[in-house]
Amino acid sequence: MKIWLMLLVGFLSYCFGAYMLYSPFFKDRPALYYPVSFMVGNAATFLWLYIARTQTENRNTLFYGNVWDFGLMAAYAIIPILFFGVKLNPMGLVGMAVVILGLVIFKMNL
Predict the structure, then answer these.
(1) What whole-number distance in Å separates Cα of residue 9 and Cα of residue 72?
(2) What is the pLDDT of residue 17?
């Protein structure tokens, strides 16, 4: 399986997870939300572990790790805004910027 396709599947699984988090359908059904969320999260985690284990060069792993992390951030930031009308306050934007900056600084120093 191509790495970019696996990254896309991971991004889509995180999009589904973000959708479930804000969806009224899942909020009213916690008995459904928890197992489905657990399965989606574990599938995405195992997909990332597979991607990381197939990389032979540390540089590639760091690059794909950044792509994975930014996809995760984008999914949980964009889905609530697009589908549920969530408004980001200034502190939310600052928090996202700090997380992204921290990811970049941490991964570039490895």
Answers:
(1) 11
(2) 92
